[in-house]
Amino acid sequence: MTAPDPTAMPAPHAPDLAVLGALALELTAGAAIARTTLPQGDAGALAGLIARDLADFEADAARLQLVTVGAHYDPVELLRPGWPLHRELDDLAARAPGGGHDGEGHGRIIAFGSHDGRLPGALTPSPDYDGGTFRLLPFLLSGDADTIARVGDAFENGLLERGMAGAETALQAQTAFGLRIEHARYLTVHDLAAMTAMQYDHAGLAPLWPLLETALLEPGGEAWLDAVPEPLLRYADGEARIALFSPRAWHARYAPEAPCDSDECRDRLERRFQQFQARLRQFAAVLGAHGVAVNFVDCQDAERARDALA
């Protein structure tokens, strides 16, 4: 599978005039995660180092407002239609007091940390996805359109290859979160999508990616998965519709060979049907983890299955 080309992707459905990215923390396999959130003071200290790193990569980034949070997340929590985690950062920052610059041409830094163990708004990482070794600390840069365009282009063209976090930043994250970090680097959300596409390819989920990519980058668009032996899916109107075939309809679509006349043949077909249902549940679970609404549609007629999803 070919990874998406960030330069060819549609503009993400995201907060206006913003660059969306994350500090990616690659953890040592098997190492414990002491905490997923930081109190305000630690969140602010880490944000200051992130701002310095981003300005070192592209000087104009220092002119933009940086908004981040003292918490780390699984990739599926960032890769969701409408980029809700980044949008929440943007919405919370809009309500924060103060202007967008410090008076010396530098954008302000806003870092949200926990108070009494709780983060503001909808920023709390989900415990359902806290066991992975690839964790992401999201950030958002906002400001005037020209600066955003320059910084965005620079980040898309080089951040993945050359955006290693500074040693002080990595050490601060490791100490504050109680992690064992092997690598720390910066990504845009497009970089993250491209990496996820390759990971899903290796995991046997490549057929599902075009639907998920459409949901992420063109939420109002449409995409089909109509390729036997995979489940039949359609993404449209902000949801994924999955054909739930009856045994007879499944047989007509996926096993149209001559009728079975032995127990061995019938058992083999039953195993194939059970495997198909497991694949269907797997696809539904992946879509749901990415925040895509899933709707199962009963299909009793294989020839009209596409019509049922339309």
Please give a structural write-up:
With 310 residues, the chain is α+β, with helices and mostly antiparallel strands. The chain has two domains: 6-203, no CATH class; 215-309, no CATH class. The protein is 40% helix and 18% strand. It contains ten helices and nine strands. The chain has helices at 40-57, 75-78, 84-94, 145-162, 167-177, 189-202, 209-217, 247-254, 263-289, 305-309, and strands at residues 18-27, 65-69, 109-112, 134-142, 181-188, 223-225, 233-236, 239-245, 293-299. The strands form two sheets. Strands 3-2-4-1-5 form a five-stranded mixed sheet, sandwiched between helices. A four-stranded mixed sheet has the order 6-7-8-9. Helix 1 (40-57) packs antiparallel against helix 5 (167-177). The model is unreliable at 1-13 (pLDDT under 50).
Q: How many domains?
A: 2
Cα-atom Rg, whole angstroms?
Answer: 22 Å
Helical run tally:
10
Residue share in helix: 40-55%
Outline type: elongated
In terms of quaternary structure, the protein is: single chain
Structural class by sheet pairing and helices: alpha+beta
The counted number of beta strands is 9
The separation of the N and C termini measures 27 Å
Uncertain stretches of 5 or more adjacent residues:
1-13
Q: What's the story with the biggest beta sheet?
A: 5 strands, mixed
Widest beta sheet: strand line-up: 3-2-4-1-5
Q: What is the residue-mean pLDDT, rounded to a whole number?
A: 91
Into which percentage range does the β-strand content fall? 15-25%
What order do the helices and strands follow? EHEHHEEHHEHHEEEHHEH
